[in-house]
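Request: Show me your protein:
***
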Amino acid sequence: MAARYDAIGRTYTATRGTDPRIAARIWDALGDARTVVNVGAGTGSYEPPDRDVTAVEPSAVMIAQRPPGAAPAVQASAEALPFEDASFDAAMAVLTLHHWSDLRAGCAELRRVARDRVVVFSWDPTYVGRMWLGPEYFPQYSREDAEGFPSLAEQAAAFGDAAVEVVPIPWDCRDGFFSAFWRRPEAYLDPAVRAGISTLAKRSEDELAEGLARLRADLDSGAWARRHADLLERDELDLGYRLLVGR
C-alpha cells in the first residue's frame, strides 16, 4: 500500500476530503471514545477534531500532505501496529481495507489495540454493478477490483460480528472516492478526480481511454442523461458503502 500511494497519491488532497454527512456517522459511531487510532489514515480525512487521535499511514507521500495541526502520524501498516494492547478507546479505518495485504491480520490488530470499539467505513462488493461507471465504461476493471475485495460478511466477522449500517452517498459528496460522483458524471473526465480514485489512478491513460471516450460521447449526446434520468431526481443513493461497528 505504501508503494502504491507513494506513486498515485501525490495530488490526493485536490479531490479527497471530509464529507460532513459521512463524518457525522463515523464520529457518532465512535461513541464516547476519547483516544482514537486512525489506521490507513491518509491525509487525515474523517479524523474527529475533538478527540485525541493518532494516525497510522504507510505512505510517506500521504503523510506529507496532512495539513498543519493534523493528528500526529506514525508510518506503519495495519497488519503490524506499533502499539501495546488496548492502547486506545477506539480504532477507526476509512475506505482502506481493500489496500491491506492481509485483511484478517489487520482486523485483528485493530481489535487488539482498541479497548472499546472498532469503527470502519467500508464497501460491500456485491454492489459492484450498482454504480454505472464500472459496468458501463470500465467493466473489466470494476470486476477485477470487486473480486479481490472481501465480502461484507467476511469484513463483519473479522471485526467480531460487527454491526453493519447503510451509509447512503449524497449527490454532492465532498469526498471524491469512486462512487462519489454518481450524479455528476462529467467529473470522471477530470484527470485530477481520477488521480484521487485508486481504481482509476492505478490504470494508465491508454487503459482508460476507450471508456472515457464513450463517457464523453454519451454526455455530449445526452445519452447518459436519458439512461440515468432517475438519478437526477435523487439526493442520495445506496451504493454499497457501509459502516461496521465492532464492540
Remarks:
- The CA atoms of residues 60 and 81 lie 16 Å apart.
- The chain has one domain: 2-246.
- The two ends are 27 Å apart (CA to CA).
